[in-house]
Amino acid sequence: MAGCSLTVNPSEIVVRFGDPVSVNCSTSARYVTGMGWEAPFGGTGFERPPVVTWRVDKLEEWTPSPFCYATLDDGSQCTLRPVITIFKTPDFVSISVLDHSLIMQDTEYNNSTRTQYWLQCNIINVAPVQFLTVNWYKNNESIMAMSFNDTTTKTPVNESSILKINISREENVAEFRCEAELDFGPHGPKLYVTVGNPPPVYNWTCDGKNMLENTNSLNITRVKHNATCCPLTLTPSETVVTFGDPVSVNCSTSATDVEGMGWEAPFGGTGFEPPPVVTWRVEKLEEWTPSPFCYATLVDGSQCTVSPVITVYKIPDTVSIYPMNQSQMMEKHVHYNKHTRTLRGLQCNIINVAPVQFLTVNWYKNNESIMAMSFNDTTTKTPVNESLILKVNISREENVAEFRCEAELDFGPHGPKLYIMDTFDVLHILHQITLKMNPSEIVVRFGDPVSVNCSTSARYVTGMGWEAPFGGTGFKPPPVVTWRVDKLEEWTPSPFCYATLADGSRCTSHPVIIVYKTPDFVSVPDMARGPMVEGIGYNLKCDIYNVAPVQNLIVKWYRGNETVLTQTFNGSALTPVNTSSTLRISTQRDYNGLTFRCEAALHLGPKGPKFPPNVTSPPYTAVVLCKISTNLLHVSLSTKLINPSKSLTRTDSGKYTASENESDTIFTDSPSFTCKEHYEVTVNDKPQSICEPVGLPTPTLTWFKDGKQMVSPQRWKKNDSGKYLLNAHNTHGTAEHTLYLEILCNADSNPPSNIRWIYTAAENSNVTTEGHQKIISITKATSTNGGYYICVAENKAGRNTRFVRLKEMQVAALLDVICAVQILYAISEVKQSSIFSC
């Protein structure tokens, strides 16, 4: 199908802003089903071809964008837009001299002397600027044309054109004019707005005031008589008054041609009164910018006015001084020399003062003026809040420096000088004071009493105290305050002493407190491998239980009375821990029968105990089987030589004598026990070597309970308490040992439980408490001690029980039944009844 055949008439149009406009759109095509105009104003809707018109009666849009569209038979659409230019002629065009003083310049002229000037042509409110041309004329002769390249701005703008001219002395008079032209080409009109060189502007002034305002046209027909300018006198002509105070000003005249006079004002106006005096009076001035004026009506009907200068003021409500950053006022813990100075920022606040233009703030250091600051705001007449910042350098040697700020309202010769200083807002710049701790470092046993004194000799301390979870003192007067705790049960106490200074700032100091606890016990467990063999390496382990702080722990190993190893620890824990130390030994035959022991000591430094607290393990006695190098030349039994390689039988018992030979013989030994008779283990613990026999070769160990052989359990149970028979056997013999095993029963609870036993009391039974354990001890048990022993744990969250049954076959044993409670740290708002793990 052929292209879109639309025609707009006119295709380009220039129209004045606000005038009517219309454009026809037509087509001769036969395949157009309809057409119309789309526009913000004047749109037509869908109409039948061949012609549709866009019409606006009053075009008030700077960038109209109407377009004509046609819908074709196939549903497609084509469009066409007219070019529309909206214009506005300038409101006015004027010429001014950029520097008027050059025109009056007194210069030596000669025939070639010329003076340079700059004239500016101002074109106000014209559109569009892209069609604007400014033409300059001198004595009606065109001398310059200037156009503008702004093609984007369609709305009215103000533009100017500058002409640089040279005027010779011979020209005497030269007339310049500028002409603003809107040239739209063939589609629009040519519009010219012309202005000549500006005519003189007449200024009629009296006492510096322009009486007739500026005008460039004045017709003087005749002079009737001479008269002075407005013949009025104000007393006082300038006055300064406090907001809310009374005020009055007299207006008088001595002229004879004054018909009447009066005051015009929002408050205190007088009406028209006869001369020579009229007074403006207000009893309570509550206006920040009063503007009364006195007027006089002359006999010729003219009128003149004069206004007093009135300044309304208000002194500040408060003047205060404070450091910009309180935390920065106190010097840090640094090394000072005599040249060290600290920079401070002080702020002086002046609240609710007016007018600020007359305000001066004076800063003083130790009553000596150091700075004055004023304000340049001449427009604000109502009260404002102002602040000024002073940066000061304070040396440490000054110790105390006193600063104050003073607000002054100075109104010059027509008003008072007002000084406002709040003497209570004097700031002391304080350096870091010294808080003395006695002792500054302290070492204390967990659970023991402790006290530390904090003192100061500073004079500007208003109060001091201790902050601590326990033993805090509250705010006390200086110079000494004491932190005291009767029973220190905190591993990481963090008390600090504070002092509040005269300026409200605070400094603090912390003592160094080390809380220690000696081990509950130290032990070297049996190696569980039987006796040692000469020349073989072994590890001895020292277990230290529940010691703090571990970093102060030193473990020493002794072989006999000889120190063989010293070990330190690098941990950082402050609470009790379990730790261990290992000694590696290579056994020698001399070690047989020697004792090994370890000593755990807390070395707490010069502030600690004179003799480091220590706990030593029970001795471990070494049993060493020796290798003997010998030359067995012959072996005899009762002086009878025998074959050394002969196998011996039970009938070969007797005393043998061996002579040396180059061979190694290992002596053998029958089984033996070096175990204790009483052991304690905890429920659910894994079985470990409690008692091991010694002998070579290593004996086979069998456990019996109640006459029955035991299978080694995976974990100890509560019913495993009782008497055990241990049988050790090797090729050289058999040994037996009897021991008593106690299974400790634990109960966890939160909050802690109260524990008690329910049982049938007897003379040979006794209940004792060890820590959180209650123990029943039965000595020389009889059949009367048989039965149930019930352990009860209770707290406010509930109750739980466990029991132990003592059978008749067990009564011959010494029985210790233990109920132990392990205290858990309480979790906030969580309560649970006792949970046994027996």
From TrEMBL:
<keyword id="KW-1015">Disulfide bond</keyword>
<dbReference type="InterPro" id="IPR013783">
    <property type="entry name" value="Ig-like_fold"/>
</dbReference>
<dbReference type="InterPro" id="IPR036179">
    <property type="entry name" value="Ig-like_dom_sf"/>
</dbReference>
<dbReference type="Pfam" id="PF03921">
    <property type="entry name" value="ICAM_N"/>
</dbReference>
<keyword id="KW-0472">Membrane</keyword>
<dbReference type="InterPro" id="IPR003599">
    <property type="entry name" value="Ig_sub"/>
</dbReference>
<comment type="similarity">
    <text>Belongs to the immunoglobulin superfamily. ICAM family.</text>
</comment>
<feature type="domain" description="Ig-like">
    <location>
        <begin position="316"/>
        <end position="408"/>
    </location>
</feature>
<keyword id="KW-0677">Repeat</keyword>
<protein>
    <recommendedName>
        <fullName>Ig-like domain-containing protein</fullName>
    </recommendedName>
</protein>
<dbReference type="InterPro" id="IPR013768">
    <property type="entry name" value="ICAM_N"/>
</dbReference>
<dbReference type="GO" id="GO:0005178">
    <property type="term" value="F:integrin binding"/>
</dbReference>
<keyword id="KW-0325">Glycoprotein</keyword>
<keyword id="KW-0130">Cell adhesion</keyword>
<keyword id="KW-1133">Transmembrane helix</keyword>
<dbReference type="GO" id="GO:0098609">
    <property type="term" value="P:cell-cell adhesion"/>
</dbReference>
<feature type="domain" description="Ig-like">
    <location>
        <begin position="644"/>
        <end position="807"/>
    </location>
</feature>
<dbReference type="InterPro" id="IPR003987">
    <property type="entry name" value="ICAM_VCAM_N"/>
</dbReference>
<dbReference type="GO" id="GO:0016020">
    <property type="term" value="C:membrane"/>
</dbReference>
<keyword id="KW-0732">Signal</keyword>
<feature type="domain" description="Ig-like">
    <location>
        <begin position="519"/>
        <end position="616"/>
    </location>
</feature>
<dbReference type="InterPro" id="IPR047012">
    <property type="entry name" value="ICAM_VCAM"/>
</dbReference>
<keyword id="KW-0393">Immunoglobulin domain</keyword>
<dbReference type="InterPro" id="IPR007110">
    <property type="entry name" value="Ig-like_dom"/>
</dbReference>
<keyword id="KW-0812">Transmembrane</keyword>
<feature type="domain" description="Ig-like">
    <location>
        <begin position="90"/>
        <end position="181"/>
    </location>
</feature>
